[in-house]
């Protein structure tokens, strides 16, 4: 039993346990930021909590990191094991993407680029797909040969939009490309996209015609039914009348006679001859416009015309046959392709020529003279 009637507590005596004099003057060590701790845990793969399986490859990962970037993972429940389709997300692509998530840099490496793009789209990683599109929008990094090399990857992954975008970036590299097996192995749809482009760089439309012949002849047994489709890609109205007359009379390399015998080819050549004759003779007269309308002839659209600033018509790169002339045969074209294979970087010195289709046709007549055919016969 206490001798005192009431024993007060420290609180009752005025001592405040939540207030210590000079406490605010203590100099504490700087606290480690929790973001840094999380970053270390993620980068050191400490106690991963989700397993990603792609084919025979297994990745031990942190779900939090995946959820932060991927909408697909963010919508999942708390699965501990996730199987991803290898055709959509390759092991290489997933490793690159996971490393990208861990990195503070936004850079995307060129290696396995299309695989990463396909995987990022499947995993719905918006920031990464945006970064991929930024890379693909670069006309400096992805043009000409670099664009086609990426096209090969895009074709392998059946990325139609990406393929078409890249094919439209081929200009001066067109002829060196025609000299390769990658060109002759292109599917018809991709060839069509390439030859439809007004951006492909050529010395004349004759280059496009012979390039089409090269593709058809590479696998003639299986491609002869495609002659009509392929010939519609050639702008015959931009070919010199003298060469058109040769094609019309089969006065050309016998290797392309099967192509010239095709009814579509004959029709297109005849239409081009009619257009050339009408344009040269009656271009300023109303009769010309009525004639072209009646024959369903359209004004040819320009390609991207090239010239070699170091090559004159007297001493062309091939000696006897300069690159600047367009009135040449199929064998000469094949010789040019062989030359381009030997001189790998020749195309890089080529320059664009600003010239219209009308000027080109007028120049063709002045250089080649009238073709050997009867206008009345061709208009039938």
Jot down its keywords.
three-stranded mixed β-sheet, single chain, about 50% helix, about 375 residues, about 5% strand, mainly alpha
Note down, in words, how this protein is organized:
- The protein contains 21 helices and 6 strands.
- Helix 7 (144-156) packs antiparallel against helix 8 (160-167) and helix 15 packs antiparallel against helix 17.
- The protein has helices spanning 34-43, 63-69, 71-75, 91-102, 113-123, 126-136, 144-156, 160-167, 174-178, 181-184, 188-196, 205-218, 220-223, 227-231, 241-248, 257-261, 263-282, 286-294, 330-342, 357-368, 375-378; strands at 50-54, 57-61, 81-83, 201-202, 304-307, 351-353.
- The protein has a 3-stranded mixed sheet with strand order 2-1-3. A 3-stranded mixed sheet has the order 4-5-6.
- The chain has a domain at 171-378.
- Helix content is 50%, strand content 6%.
- The N and C termini lie far apart (135 Å).
- A hairpin with a 2-residue loop joins strand 1 (50-54) and strand 2.
- The protein is mainly alpha-helical and 380 residues long.
């Amino acid at each position: 039993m206490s001798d005192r009637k009431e024993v007060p507590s420290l609180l009752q005596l005025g001592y405040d346990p939540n207030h210590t004099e000079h406490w605010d003057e203590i100099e504490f060590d700087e606290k480690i930021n929790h973001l840094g701790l999380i970053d270390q845990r993620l980068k050191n793969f400490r106690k991963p909590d989700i397993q990603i399986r792609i084919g025979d490859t297994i990745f031990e990962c942190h779900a939090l990191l995946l959820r932060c970037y991927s909408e697909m993972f963010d919508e999942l429940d708390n699965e501990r094991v996730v199987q991803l389709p290898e055709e959509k997300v390759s092991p290489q692509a997933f490793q690159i993407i996971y490393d990208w998530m861990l990195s503070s840099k936004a850079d995307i490496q060129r290696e396995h680029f299309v695989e990463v793009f396909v995987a990022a789209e499947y995993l719905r990683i918006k920031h990464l797909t945006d970064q991929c599109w930024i890379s693909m929008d670069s006309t400096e990094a992805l043009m000409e040969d670099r664009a086609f090399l990426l096209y090969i990857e895009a074709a392998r992954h059946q990325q139609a939009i990406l393929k078409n975008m890249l094919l439209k970036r081929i200009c001066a590299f067109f002829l060196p490309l025609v000299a390769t097996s990658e060109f002759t192995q292109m599917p018809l749809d991709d060839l069509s996209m390439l030859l439809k482009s007004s951006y492909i760089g050529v010395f004349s439309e004759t280059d496009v015609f012979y390039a089409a012949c090269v593709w058809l002849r590479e696998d003639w047994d299986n491609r002869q039914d495609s002659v009509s489709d392929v010939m519609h890609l050639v702008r015959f109205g931009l070919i010199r009348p003298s060469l058109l007359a040769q094609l019309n009379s089969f006065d050309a390399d016998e290797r392309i006679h099967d192509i010239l015998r095709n009814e579509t080819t004959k029709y297109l050549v005849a239409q081009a001859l009619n257009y050339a004759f009408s344009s040269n003779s009656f271009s300023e007269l109303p009769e010309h416009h009525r004639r072209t309308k009646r024959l369903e002839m359209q004004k040819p659209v320009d390609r991207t015309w090239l010239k070699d600033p170091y090559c004159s018509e007297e001493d062309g790169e091939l000696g006897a046959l300069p690159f600047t002339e367009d009135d040449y045969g199929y064998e000469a074209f094949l010789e040019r392709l062989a030359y381009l294979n030997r001189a790998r970087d020749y195309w890089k010195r080529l320059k664009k020529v600003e010239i219209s289709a009308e000027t080109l046709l007028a120049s063709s007549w002045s250089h080649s003279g009238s073709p050997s055919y009867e206008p009345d016969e061709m208009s039938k």
